[in-house]
Predict the structure.
Amino acid sequence: MKTFITCVVLAGSVGLFSCSSQTENKSENTADNGAEATSPAQAVVGQSGVIDESSSPNIVQVAVGSKDHTTLVAAVKAASLVDALSNAGPFTVFAPTNAAFDKLPAGTVEGLLKPEKLEALKGILEYHTYVGVLKTDYMQDGQEFEMVSGGKVKITKKDNKVFVNGSEIIASIPTSNGIIHVIGDVLLPK
């Protein structure tokens, strides 16, 4: 698990180094315009900071644009997973809606967003993430998939509907680095 996260961070770092000349040019331009210049170390951002207006949006960009996933986005930010989920992937994310988080006992979300609960929050979010693209068309009843956290989720099919751990996949959204399956429940590791 830690090896995967390390690889994702390293891949993001490679992307940053390839963009460093643009960052330095921006710093120089800012200084030439009379504004306070920043050092290259201050200007460094992760993969999520790469601006590419011609490509399809990635998983994080799609989630940020969804009014139904503000709680999930806040959790991803609190767990410092924005850059990891902005990398090339591919990833499959089972994305609980705000209403799914509202089903949890009162205070659960707020508690998980506290810095001392960072590892628990990461574990839950990693239980919603699979490395690879899982399209519903190819999912079979009874299949199990090992998530980033190491836990497994189980797929069931009934009446042309697909469920992950009993939660129906409401919608599927392809992204530039994988796919998002919108679900109505938060998946809790067993």
